[in-house]
Amino acid sequence: MLSIPIGTTRFCDGVSRRAFLQIGAVSFGALHLTLSDLLRAEAAQDPFPRTRHKGLIHIFLGGGPPHQDMWDIKTEAPAEIRGEFQPIATSVPGIQIGECFPRIAQLAHKFVFIRSVVGLQDRHDAIMCTTGWPANSLANMGGRPSIGSVVARLQGAVDPSVPPFIGLAERTQHMPWSDPGQPGFLGPTFAAFRPSGPDMANMVLNTANRDHLPERKTLLRAFDQLKRQLDHSGVLEAADNNTQRALEILTSSRLVEALDLSRESPKVRQRYGDGKPYKYQYDGAPTVNEHLLIARRLIEAGARVVSLSYGRWDSHGKNFDLVRDHGGKLDQCLTALVEDLDARGLLDDVTVIAWGEFGRTPRINKDAGRDHWAPVSCAILAGGGMRTGQVIGSTDRTGGYAKDRPVHYAEIVATLYHNLGLDPSTTTVLDPTGRPQHLVEAKPLPEVI
């Protein structure tokens, strides 16, 4: 923590004391960095915020959602495979999805259902979904950077007071399920800002502190004095601009207001729901419906990529009870988000995706569950200017393997980059050796662009 003296005040006990403004370090990834550290590598960004920008809301269904109980119902499969759910018609003739998603069915013309996601591994983490690469790719350099980190590096902040990459996921016991996406070889400067817990408390200047800031130059002078005291070697000489940008975040209300749901109307909050009670959470994420609403607010405030984890889908037992619970809640908040973005004129600019690290076994086990199944999985997308109201790909009769149009997960990530305004076939980032690295080795889905 930095304690910077900015004046004298007298408290109600009559004792005159020095008032201190405490500005805490915030957590980025596994490291603790100051805001100035976070901002140091972004000096080349466009200093003029845009009123509109491309955005991504990435919803990770940690644990592996059961594709054959969601978007790919197998009514003609044997009983030990097809499960308990029936298909229901949607707003798009010829497309049916699982009965737990009636709202999504009514809004199917706004969605893309991918039934044949391939290339995933049997790993309980989000790495392939957030990067488009296998986990061991460039591991000796720190690994591949996630979409959010790449966007933060290449496109910078829309508003200097709002981080471009924000991770909303609450910490989970199985930590990879709350991973918003790692910065990889780009380094911790481009990790997600995580406002949960003490990070947000450190972001807020309380009223007393604000009363002692007649202008931001006072605080800047305090930083300059601190720098002169601590830095005799000139290491911090180049930090002035980054410190000023850090102060923009600390003294601006834009980010704090975006995170404050009390500013939303009760009607809007009711449409999203709160996802409670949290069931089947165990070591995973809760079903926080309001995170999707906060994600929309953050995008409006200037964030480019907002990542969150929703639920714990590792259904080795009671699979169908879990899908009824998680599915019904996801059905409510995901449709509310898409309708909300559409009503606000943001849907063409903001891409929404919900998917997990792999699928589930075709055969139901003795505990009425489905186990890990990497050969095929699923995804649902909306917005981003895509051609929606369609299904891409299919699986065989049992839902075990891709049949028509296998879709590699890297193609999906390439599509997300494309929707964010980055051409994955030509755009590169430099690795620590100075060598340019492509964002992903795949092309966007031609069916949607």
UniProtKB/TrEMBL annotation:
Pfam families: DUF1501. It comes from the Bacteria. This is DUF1501 domain-containing protein. InterPro entries: Alkaline_phosphatase_core_sf, DUF1501, TAT_signal.
